């Protein structure tokens, strides 16, 4: 016979609280790619007066995932973003590589309002290098199409390639395959110059959300990920 004293304790978390924790988890996933629970708790508690714990975080995220479509996944004490699906071995391997690259690096922690903008999967900042590259492409008629099926879609693919650690040569080949008419070596070098600016000003999972330029300015170490 079960007595009142022997009944298991049920932690109750309101719907509003679960959604708040999930909002932060989603923003963290889009900014950092992967983050472990203890680190996430630190991030959440930095911004919110009503602090959370590792236990509450896990329960809230697990329970909301049962009833709602969510962008995150929980596995092995980590919160994974949609770029990494822990059910797939290749994704899990990539996530672990990113996690190893994050180790020892500072974490990008903007103001609260700015952090929560990353809840939107299409949010990208800093935007200026991408806008400058788009203006260059259109001005030089490397692409005459706008929108998702034109230059805007190409820049979205560019962002994903940089995040996936594709080398500059591979990215250039992508644009060649898309039909960008580079007439000579000077045109290629001019494009690569702008591409380098984009690569060095893209927030990277492996940098805990910092851009390569920001890390260089903080620690005076070589820029990444410009590779040839």
Can you put this structure into words, describing what you see?
The chain is mainly alpha-helical. The chain is 53% helix and 4% strand. The chain has ten helices and three strands. A three-stranded antiparallel beta sheet has the order 1-3-2, with helices on both faces. Helix 1 (15-32) crosses helix 3 (54-67) and helix 6 runs antiparallel to helix 9. The longest helix is centred in the N-terminal third of the chain and has 18 residues, at 15-32. The protein is elongated, with a radius of gyration of 21 Å. The termini are far apart. The model has no long low-confidence stretch (mean pLDDT 93).
What's the structural blueprint in terms of helices and strands?
Layout: H1 15-32, E1 34-36, H2 37-47, H3 54-67, E2 73-75, E3 78-80, H4 89-102, H5 112-116, H6 128-139, H7 151-163, H8 168-177, H9 185-199, H10 212-219
Antiparallel strand pairs: 1-3, 2-3
Which value, in Å, is the CA radius of gyration?
Answer: 21 Å
- Report helical residue fraction: 40-55%
Please state the overall shape, judged from the principal axes of the Cα atoms.
elongated
**Secondary-structure class:** mainly alpha
User: How far do the termini sit from each other?
Assistant: 71 Å
What string gives the helices and strands in order?
HEHHEEHHHHHHH
Report the portion of residues in β strands. Answer: under 5%
Count of DSSP H/I helices: 10
Poorly predicted runs of 5 or more residues? none
Please state the average pLDDT score: 93
**How are the strands of the biggest sheet laid out side by side?**
1-3-2
Strand count, sense and closure of the main sheet?
3 strands, antiparallel
Chain oligomer state: single chain
């Amino acid at each position: 016979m079960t007595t009142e004293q022997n009944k298991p304790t049920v932690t109750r978390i309101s719907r509003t609280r679960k959604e708040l924790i999930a909002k932060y988890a989603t923003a963290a996933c889009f900014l950092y790619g992967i983050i472990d629970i203890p680190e996430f708790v630190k991030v959440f508690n930095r911004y919110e007066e009503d602090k959370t714990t590792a236990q509450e975080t896990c329960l809230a995220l697990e329970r909301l995932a049962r009833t709602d479509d969510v962008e995150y996944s929980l596995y092995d004490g980590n919160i994974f973003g949609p770029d990494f699906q822990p059910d797939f071995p290749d994704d899990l391997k990539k996530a672990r590589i990113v996690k190893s690259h994050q180790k020892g690096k500072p974490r990008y922690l903007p103001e609260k309002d700015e952090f929560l903008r990353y809840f939107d999967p299409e949010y990208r900042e800093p935007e200026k290098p991408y806008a400058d590259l788009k203006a260059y492409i259109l001005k030089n008629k490397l692409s005459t199409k706008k929108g998702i099926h034109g230059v805007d879609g190409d820049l979205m693919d560019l962002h994903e390639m940089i995040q996936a650690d594709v080398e500059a040569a591979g990215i250039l080949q992508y644009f060649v395959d898309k039909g960008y008419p580079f007439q000579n070596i000077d045109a290629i070098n001019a494009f690569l110059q702008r591409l380098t600016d984009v690569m060095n000003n893209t927030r990277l999972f492996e940098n805990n959300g910092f851009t390569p330029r920001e890390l260089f300015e903080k620690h005076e170490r070589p820029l990444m990920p410009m590779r040839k």
